[in-house]
Every structure is written in structure tokens, then in C-alpha cells.
Amino acid sequence: MILSQTPAGSFFGVIGISLGFYDPSIAQYIGFILHLLTGLTAGNIFGQISLFWKGLSPYNSQHGTVMGMVVGILLWVILFLPLATFIIQPRLDSFANSLVPNQYVYNIASNFQGLYYIIIGGSFMFHLVYGALLGYIAGRMSEIRIFQQ
User: Which of 62, 66, 130, 142 is the most exposed place for a label (fewest CB within 10 A)?
Assistant: First the structure.
């Protein structure tokens, strides 16, 4: 990660550490798996709701892009922002200011000190981009399906 000067996988390690997994490889794997499961669940919920709520259903790529960005913003507001603000950041702050289980946890916590607003802003942008891609692909699939009928 360029801004935090931490090795690859640190983002996922932060998730694992926040949940109490202090071994470097285990923390990263737990964080990675939880991140994937969250994304898969969010995409599935978006798909299921759009089946029943036609206003959300991406009927073309342009509408899909907009709806995907709305979903990305909602996920950021409902899930990422509260978790980062009330669980992850306080946990990292406590590790940076007290005794820590090991050097890996200390390095991660100290490297992420002062980066809260950068991470919040960057994650907002990533949620917008991911939402736009998700919506575009869903809308494009709808266009292809309509064209084939």
C-alpha cells in the first residue's frame, strides 16, 4: 500500500487484527475471506432486490452504472463507514498506544496512524468504482439478454 508504506495484504490484515487474529498470515486470510464474502453478499442482495424492484433493476448499461454507484454509496455508508469508524480505527488506535500482541500488529497499527481520512476517502472512491462496474456489467447483461430475445 503506497500511502501507508505497509506490505501487500495489510488492508486485509487490518480486518483480521481488528477481529482478534494476530498471526500475520491468518489475519490477512481472515480479512481477505471476509472481504470477499461481504462483496459477494452485497452483490447477491443487489441482484435479488433488483429482481423484485424494477426501479433498481439495471435495464441497460447506463442505468446499471448509476444504480450500481448508488448501491456502492449505500454500502459505504451502511457498512464500511460505521465499521471503520467505530470498530477498526479504535482498535488500531488502542494498539498504537498500548501493549500489543506482536510486532506485526504494532507495525500495522503504527503505519495506519493518521491515515483515517485518506482511507475513508479512498474507500468511498473504490465503492463508487466497484458499484459502477457491478451496475455496468449487470446492465450490459440485460441489454444482451433483451437483444437475444
Answer: 62
Alpha-carbon distance values, 71 to 13, 23, 37, 126 (Å): 26, 34, 16, 12
- 80 assigned to some structural domain: yes
Q: How far apart are CA 31 and CA 101, in angstroms?
A: 18
- Who's near 70: CB < 8 A, 6+ residues apart? 131
Which structural domain range is residue 58 located in? Answer: 10-148
Residue 121 lies in a domain: yes
The model carries a pTM of: 0.84
DSSP state of 101: S
Contact 51, 84 (CB under 8 A): no
Locate 59 and state its grid cell.
Answer: 435495464
Note whether 142 and 59 are within 8 A (CB): yes
Structurally, how many domains does the chain consist of?
1
Query: Is residue 39 included in any domain, yes or no?
Result: yes
Which tens digit of pLDDT belongs to each residue from 53-96? 877 788 889 999 999 999 999 999 999 999 999 999 999 888 88
Assess if residue 1 is contained within a domain. no
